[in-house]
Amino acid sequence: MFMHNKRLMYTVRVSEPNPKLASLMLEQFGGPQGELAAAMRYFTQGIADEDPGRKDMLIDIATEELSHLEVIGSIVAMLTKGVKGKLAEGAEETTDMLANITQGNGSHTLSLLYGGGPALVNSAGQLWNAGYIDSIGEPTADLRSNLAAEARAKIIYERLMNVTDDPGVREALGFLMTREVAHQKMFEKALYAIENNFPPGKLPGVPEYTDKYYNMSQGPGDMRGPWNQGDQWEYVDARPDQQAVDGGDGNASVRMAAAEIAAVDKLAARTKSRPDIDPTTGADLGAGPGAGKTKPVKQV
């Protein structure tokens, strides 16, 4: 059960309306790194988690993310408040009104389509969707994904802070950015509280392949580092050793019943290509300048 407190988690103080900035703020309202996506990610994980400690943490953070959504939504609403009233009441000359709502970066869409209120879209107008939630139901994998999600959200907040000099907005964004840092620490502690947290899942890796580094892209720029050298790694750069590493011939095969083989043979026969003919094609008939080499068409 949820109970809403009418006071925001962080006080929103906006110096002056700015529809263009409001459109950018939508990135953290309805964007893939935004607060709604974070809340839905952690709620669904928490509901499914069997560990009471992680469940409590995930639900707590999810609920906090909803409060962050309210803070961001309030910033958007305050930044568009002046234009919202003027647009609704026609309280400005047409040219001035047009200038106000077309400040760039989708501010006109926010004003006209959503009436200046926060919408569940990102800063480019893309509708929010559940595809932003990539939980897989394995705590060690989901916690690592959560760490990355919080890191991406922090970077977006940094970028938003860099595009506004409004002190109140910057303070609120700084608070939200800092909470992303706190959540990263919580998720990492929870991850390492699972004694066997790597690799994810139950099954171990196949020993023959867990310690090999395949240098598949060779040429200038090849680098060695802790990710591919030292006692932990076997560095494989010989091309013959990079193919059919299982000891087979590297060809795909399947065992089929006699009837299936017969059907496939008929298909192959029906669709067989003939390398001994060179038919005139539509490209030959309609060839013009720039077509490259084509087959000469006999004139009748």
The average pLDDT score comes to 91
Largest sheet: 2 strands, parallel
Rg to the nearest angstrom?
A: 29 Å
Order of helices and strands: HHHHHHHHHHEEHH
Q: Let me know the CATH homologous superfamily of the domain at 19-192.
A: Ferritin, core subunit, four-helix bundle
Strand order of the largest sheet: 1-2
Count of helical stretches: 12
The dominant shape is extended
Query: How many beta strands in the DSSP annotation?
Result: 2
Query: How helical, in percent, are the residues?
Result: 40-55%
What is the CATH class designation of the domain at 19-192? Mainly Alpha
- The parts where pLDDT drops under 50 for at least 5 residues are none
Percentage of residues in DSSP E strands: under 5%
CATH architecture of the domain at 19-192: Up-down Bundle
Q: Can you characterise this structure?
A:
With 300 residues, this protein is mainly alpha-helical. It has a domain at 19-192: Ferritin (Up-down Bundle), CATH 1.20.1260.10. Helix content is 49%, strand content 2%. It has helices spanning 19-25, 27-30, 35-48, 52-79, 81-89, 94-101, 107-114, 139-161, 167-192, 207-210, 258-270, 282-285, and strands at residues 212-214, 234-236. The protein has a two-stranded parallel ribbon with strand order 1-2. The chain is extended and about 80 Å long. 25% of the residues are buried. The mean pLDDT is 91.
At a glance:
With 300 residues, the chain is an all-alpha fold. The chain has helices at 19-25, 27-30, 35-48, 52-79, 81-89, 94-101, 107-114, 139-161, 167-192, 207-210, 258-270, 282-285, and strands at residues 212-214, 234-236.
